[in-house]
Design goal:
Strand content: 5-15%
Helix content: 55-70%
Order of helices and strands: HHEHEHEEEHEHEHEHHHHHHHHHHHHH
Length: 594
């Protein structure tokens, strides 16, 4: 069974309140604004109106600064109920006037739940003043809204909110300002969502009472508002109460009485505006889904950049640690101090059986120098990893800076992108120490036989360990040029030592295992940096969790439910035909807005 319209609209409202769209993409600001305003319209108008079709028709009087909205409202009702302002902005707090019989519709938060209620005059823009007056026909309510072009941003936002919650817009402009851009932005919005609109052009000079309304009517037709009522109020003087002459506003008053006189007429206006408002929501759901998708794809692309940089950096480090690059500088010097190149080298090259005792005696006397080699290896690896980590951070920053969204993410991280973390060096040092322990453990774990254990004891664990480290660094023969002879000899020495203890078949396996252990330790170091980067950016970034596919599906559900609900309402409400209902077109430029 299909969900009811109220249920699916409530689901949409919940989804809209969760919209983030934090990345500053091309359309994100506009779409986010739409989502926020749509959520407010659902709260202020659509959902409560759908649940109370029979509630009084809410006419919101809006327009430009100084257009005479409050004066017009008071003049129509022939009472001073809303006070025109002298200092701009004029109307500050909204004033809602209704018939006493309709009080129960407006003394709760059924509409405008975010606004406080007051029966006294107030300048608080977040407070709705409600006035019960016999001057308003039953079934009708009139709300005097702040200026749409107020110098006060809060007033402009409130005016926009109030107009979005109207069943009917009574839009007031003046002969001097009817072509201004801001009023037409609002009228275009009204046209797009099929809102019921009537326009009053105020203070029209007698000589322009034909030309101004004709030009304005042409503009309204061009904006899709050709069927909306248009009233022209001539320029005149007010009485002692500040009211316009009855004759000047009589067409507007007659039109309001016409709307108030029939439940069917009011229902047509309400249902037309309600249907248009919901249709407008439907039209905005797919662009929202597309924007959420784009935000997710952009974040995914930026994250992929970071992921790939760390993958590449890890590969580069492992390549440089196994191609002989580390057998230079201090490592080479300490190794040469350890093994020398003279008699010992010649001994290694001779048959192992005759040279073994001499090698053992040599290694036993070189314990401190073996530790020197370990220190040099540690230092070489540290330099490699420190430079690689900083290079990775800088590369991520450079690639992100090429993307506006990436630049935003860098700013959002509070300077955490572009450099390694404070504890990076300490983690590098610890990782290398643990790897060297891993190598020594590999050496000792492979000496299961008595003969192997004896050879290891004779040569020393540290000496054999550094031999395995250097053999792992050089076994791919990556060194070139003048260093081939020295590094090659170095590798041979390490290889011969290892062969003597473990045998020829085992040493490459041991070197591979040492390399795997190093790769794992390096990966752990980079993983911490990678996770730190994510924690400072993506993990705390307020990304959208709403499924775009579910949004689109929800839009389809709303369309289906709206069509069914409107057909039902038309059958139930509009079937109450009133015999006395006048169908003739209203005079003085006004007619049924639907």
């Amino acid at each position: 069974m299909a969900e009811s319209l109220s249920v699916v609209l409530a689901q949409l409202r919940e989804a809209l309140t969760q919209v983030q769209l934090t990345l500053p993409l091309a359309n994100s600001a506009d779409v986010k604004t739409w989502a926020s305003k749509s959520a407010s319209q659902l709260d202020d108008y659509i959902i409560p109106r759908l649940g109370a079709i029979e509630a009084p028709l809410l006419t919101v009087v809006g327009g430009s600064t100084g257009a005479g909205k409050s004066t017009l409202v008071n003049s129509i009702l022939r009472q001073v109920l809303t006070t025109p302002g002298v200092i701009r902005p004029t109307t500050k707090a909204p004033v809602l006037i209704h018939h006493p019989h309709d009080t129960h519709w407006f003394n709760t938060d059924r509409v405008f739940p975010e606004l406080a209620r007051s029966q006294d005059s107030t300048d608080n823009p977040r407070c709705l003043q409600t006035i019960a007056s016999q001057a308003v026909p039953p079934g009708m309510a009139i709300l005097d809204a702040p200026d749409i072009d107020s110098v006060d941003e809060a007033n402009r936002a409130l005016a926009d909110q109030l107009l979005a919650a109207a069943d009917l817009w009574l839009f007031v402009t003046s002969a001097a300002r009817y072509a201004d851009a801001v009023p037409w932005e609002y009228l275009e919005k009204a046209s797009q969502r099929s809102a019921a609109v009537a326009v009053v052009v105020n203070r029209v000079p007698p000589a322009a009472m034909k030309a101004v309304p004709e030009h304005l009517a042409q503009m309204m037709t061009e904006q899709g508002l050709g069927d909306s009522p248009l009233f022209a109020v001539p320029e005149t003087v007010t009485d002692d109460q500040g009211l316009l002459p009855t004759s000047a506003i009589e067409p507007v008053r007659a039109w309001i009485d016409y709307l108030a006189s029939s439940k069917v007429v009011r229902a047509k206006v309400v249902m037309g505006t309600l249907d248009g408002a919901i249709s407008s929501l439907e039209a905005g759901i797919e662009p929202l889904a597309q924007e959420i998708t784009e935000q997710g794809e952009t974040l995914g692309r930026l994250r992929t950049i970071a992921d790939q940089v760390f993958i590449d950096t890890h590969k580069n480090v492992m390549a440089q640690s196994s191609d002989g690059s580390l057998l230079r500088g201090e490592v080479m010097a300490r190794w040469q101090d350890f093994v020398g190149t003279g008699e010992f080298m010649r001994s290694v090259e001779s048959r192992l059986g005759r040279a073994r005792d001499r090698m053992a005696r040599f290694f036993k006397g070189q314990g401190d120098k073996a530790l020197d080699v370990q220190v040099a290896v540690k230092s070489g690896l540290e330099i490699l990893l420190l430079e690689a980590g900083q290079s990775a951070a800088e590369r991520i920053e450079t690639e992100w800076m090429a993307d506006p969204a990436g630049r935003f993410l860098i700013e959002y991280s509070d300077g955490e992108v572009g450099s390694v973390s404070q504890g990076y060096q300490a983690r590098v040092e610890e990782a290398i120490r643990l790897w060297q322990d891993d190598v020594l453990e590999i050496v000792t774990s492979e000496t299961a036989g008595k003969r192997t254990q004896a050879r290891l004891a004779a040569l020393g664990v540290n000496g054999v360990g550094v031999s395995l480290m250097l053999f792992a660094f050089a076994h791919t023969a990556g060194v070139t040029g003048a260093e081939i002879g020295i590094a090659g000899g170095t590798a041979v020495v390490g290889q011969k030592v290892l062969e003597m203890i473990f045998g020829n078949e085992a040493i490459r396996k041991l070197a591979a295992t040492a390399g795997e252990k190093l790769a794992a330790r390096v990966e752990q170091v980079f993983a911490v940096e990678h996770d730190r980067l994510l924690a400072k950016t993506f993990d705390r970034f307020p990304a959208d969790t709403i499924s775009p596919d579910k949004l689109v599906a929800l839009g389809s559900m709303i369309t289906e439910a709206r069509v069914a609900e409107m057909a039902h309402l038309e059958k139930v409400v509009l079937s109450e035909v009133e015999p006395h209902l006048e169908t003739a077109e209203m005079t003085a430029g006004g007619h049924d807005p639907r």
